[in-house]
Amino acid sequence: MTKKLIIYLLFLTLPILLFAQDSPEVLFEQGNKAYADKDYETAAEKYEEVLDKGFQSPELYFNLGNAYYQLNKTGPTILNYEKALKRAPDDEDIRFNLKLANLRVADRATEATDLFFFSGFKNMLVNYASDRWAKLSLIFLWLSFILFAAFLWLKKAALKRLFFFSGIFSLLLTILFLVFSLQQLNYEKSKKSAIVMVTNTYVKSSPDPESTDLFILREGVKVKVLDNIDAWVKVRFSEEKVGWIEKEKLGFI
Questions:
Q1: Segment (H or E) for 53
Q2: CB burial class (10 A; 0-12, 13-18, 19+) of residue 209?
Q3: Which of 34, 100, 104, 206 has the greatest number of beta carbons closer than 10 A?
Q4: What is the rounded distance in angstroms from the CA atom of residue 113 to the CA atom of residue 241?
Q5: H or E stretch including 233?
């Protein structure tokens, strides 16, 4: 009777144990251990298994990018760093590693140089996620309420004047940060980019394999997605370089 009970309990607990061993958390830890042991191939496989289970996070994409970097796979490295950065735009480690990985890319688009002030303003706006601007807006909104409440409560004219103008300034910052949040949210939604995942590929003049070759893009290059038709994607590499590339050759951020 006891043996039958033990066997019965084993049959009940075995699926649970197998599921626990195959959980995203366990696979992630196995990937981390493999990476620490310098078994980068296994680490990448474990992280990919976590993604296959529908789990996503900046840390997961960052670690997967690190594993591919060690394997000298430029396309997957940059794609996963970009995905990590999309989910954690304030993370300096991700930015640094992405910049390092981009040094391996043979072709990089050169952007037009802005004036110093506008360049700094643009970087400040884009580098912070929309929810961060929204949180700042909420903080200054509450500060405005406090300052206006103090203005109504205080009796001295000098203090009332100070708190009134401070409240106005705080309210202006609230509106400014709210505008920044909405602009960044629109930017995040409209920004569609992809990474070239093959060693090199021709960009075509139209979505047809027999069309004219316009130029070559190499692995790791980031392009802006403009349109897609069936198995083809229209991309922009720079202002002058626009064309069509097969969808299977791209990794979408």
A1: none
A2: exposed
A3: 34
A4: 18
A5: strand 232-236
